[in-house]
Amino acid sequence: MTLMWNNPAIPFTVSLAEKQCVPGRDFVLVGDAFYGAQRFSISFVQTDSGTRLFQLDFRFDQNEAVLNSNFPVGCWGEEERHPLPLLMGRKFNIEVKCSTDRFVIIVDFQYHCEFAFRFDMNMADTLMIEGDVYIQSVQIN
Fold first, then answer.
1. Which residues, other chains included, contact 49 with Cβ-Cβ below 8 Å and sequence gap of 6+?
2. How far is Cα 129 from Cα 56, in angstroms, rounded to an integer?
3. Ranges of the chain with pLDDT below 50
4. What's the rounded Cα separation, in Å, for the pair 100 and 24?
5. What is residue 120's predicted lDDT score, i.e. its pLDDT?
6. What per-residue confidence (pLDDT) applies to 19?
């Protein structure tokens, strides 16, 4: 099953079918962060509670990528910080790959980092993209 959206408006929100975060599932974003961008994020959300089970936050203003979750709502966990792999004004390809116990983040076809699941990711029912970014396509494989 492959789903694809082209040139989605930001913020972009799409409902995920039940059990989308299974091993082998791949979420691919192609786009670019425009000049003057501060931040943008990719989040897997449980909409009933507003919980961000996983958030990947690209922070140009801090030159870092920050991974985290807030479960229960409002209680952010410990941030996992990594060097920012993106450049403003340059096209990117970001893959968020689901494995059995973690997300593996690939940026421009190179391994960037991992984020161990803190919760049952099958609770995620929404993919959300927000912030200072232009997205050319979103694909779920």
1. 72, 73
2. 10
3. none
4. 8
5. 85
6. 64
User: Under 8 Å CB-to-CB from 10, ≥6 apart: which residues?
Assistant: 40, 129, 130, 131, 133, 134, 135
Query: How many CA atoms does the CB half-sphere of 15 hold within 13 Å?
Result: 4
Helix spans in 1-141 (H):
none
Residue with tokens 């050319």: 136
Q: How far apart are CA 31 and CA 15, in angstroms?
A: 20
Sign of the torsion angle spanned by Cα atoms 69, 4, 47, 135? positive
Annotate 18-56 with DSSP letters as a single string.
TT-S-TT-EEEEEEEPPTT--EEEEEEEETTTTEEEEEE
- Residue whose C-alpha is closest to residue 126's, from 14, 27, 39: 14
> Average pLDDT, whole number, for the chain?
93
Rounded to whole angstroms, the Cα distance separating 25 from 106 reads: 13
Give the three-state DSSP class for 121: helix
Q: Which residues pair with 26 in a beta bridge?
A: 97
The answer to whether 132 touches 33, Cβ cutoff 8 Å, is yes
